[in-house]
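Quick one: structure tokens for this chain, please?
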Amino acid sequence: MTEPTPAQLYDDEALQRLRAVADMVSSGWSPGQAAVRVHSRSDDPAGVPEPRPATMGDPESLARVAVHFDVPGLHHAIESGFALGEFEDVVDGWLMPALARLGAAWRDGRVSVAEEHFVSASVQRHLAVLFDQTPRQPGGPRVLLGLARGSRHELGVLAFAIALRRTGVDVVYLGGDVPTEAWLSAVGSRRPAAVVLAVPSPDDVLATREVVEAVTGHDQDLPIMVGGSHQDEIERDVIRLGHEIAPAARRMTDALLAKI
């Protein structure tokens, strides 16, 4: 008896969803996160949008050069990765998937903690240079970005800061491990149009909730936006940015400019 083909088992819409999930998983998303994301998109009356293009470049490049501290290979991987296209395309299409593969290699024991830090530190230095080279936008809406106390995984939020600055936002980047009192001081002195916090790991959830509660108590009308892998665990008083950096930056900028 002949086995049915996928086209015989699923209608066109279901096949499109399956392809979208497969593309997102290949870009570094977990299968569960990809399925939830695609399902939420399907609730849009316009239907399921085209899936994000497949990962650009080599998503294994950073994990591969981490082994044995391959310094020339690391420099080549970073330079060639960022040369693949515009920053927004590179960060979602190569950098974040490559960092996800690096994290998976560390969890699997293929890469040591020292080797993972060796790569991450180099990527962070490169992003910091790009941030400083991106012209400031003093005439745009001001936004504070950073991490809560104890949180030091800056790569995602720093990449978002660059993308946001490139859309015309006056970005004030506070960095990692920022105490709650420092967040309140910055909000009071800089008077931002919005605050952005990243929640990259489960260990960051409680401290991020603390900042959200404190900032909301200080100014309940100030928008607080959260990103990162564990953003859904910040249940109250926030706007979730999703898991794609460039689209989130554009949506946020459009919303802020609409309020001016």
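DSSP finds eleven helices and five strands in the chain.
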